[in-house]
Amino acid sequence: MTAAPSPPPAGIPSELRPTLPDWAQVTPERLHHIQRVAELVVQWSERMGVPDSERNRWLKAVWLHDALRDAPADQLASYAPSSAALPALLHGPASAALAKAAGETDRGVLDAVRYHSVGLAEWDMVGRVLYCADFLESGRTGLGPERAALAERFPAEPDFVLLSVARRRMLQLIESGWQVPQPTLRFWNSLAAASSSR
Predict the structure, then answer these.
(1) Residue 121 maps to which CATH number?
(2) 2 in any annotated domain
(3) Under a CB-based contact definition with an 8 Å cutoff, are residues 59 and 49 in contact?
């Protein structure tokens, strides 16, 4: 496991190169996942023509979202003692808590990191981008060619892709037999309401 900042993926401009924080605990495999998410986010930001400041917000969330994914469960619980998340989902709230303690003040970035595994109805674009990119990065298996098609479609139709990803993640959650967390229910209901009103 590494706890030191790592090099960012190739192709990211130097002024937009957030890296893992020094408190990160990730395996090499996890680092590769984070890098693939960052690469996808950069592709989307370029195709969508977002300003550098917004792309930097997206990348900060990417580098933080799984920064503690490989930390021990008791450590995660100590970082996020007030979180009601299932133990397997504590890495998001724990990473957000440490990022905030280290000086991160962007509410959108912190909410994106905190809720990236479950969804949040109040997300701004950074949360929506992270949620989709985390699910659609090229190393994910199980979706087959549909993964690449949704990833390709995101810059032109982010709302459609967000709803598609949320639907698949809800189905996975239901099939797992786990309880559906309240933020996930609210997130899904907000997406479904928005979709039906179009």
Answers:
(1) 1.10.3210.10
(2) no
(3) no
Which pair of structure tokens corresponds to residue 18? 């957030």
Is residue 8 in a domain? Answer: no
How far apart, in whole angstroms, are the C-alpha atoms of residue 154 and residue 44?
Answer: 7
Which residue is listed with tokens 């905030």?
A: 100
Which pLDDT tens digits describe the chain residue by residue (198 residues)? 544 444 444 544 453 466 889 999 999 999 999 999 999 999 999 999 999 999 999 999 999 999 999 999 999 989 988 776 677 789 999 999 999 999 999 999 999 999 999 999 999 999 999 999 999 999 988 778 899 999 999 999 999 999 999 999 999 888 988 888 889 999 999 999 988 776
Tokens of 152: 């390709």
Residue owning tokens 């008791």: 74
| Other CB atoms within 10 A of residue 70 CB | 16
Predicted TM-score (pTM) of this structure: 0.90
| Residue 117 within a domain | yes
Containing structural domain, residue 37: 14-196
What the block records as the tokens of 158 is 């982010």
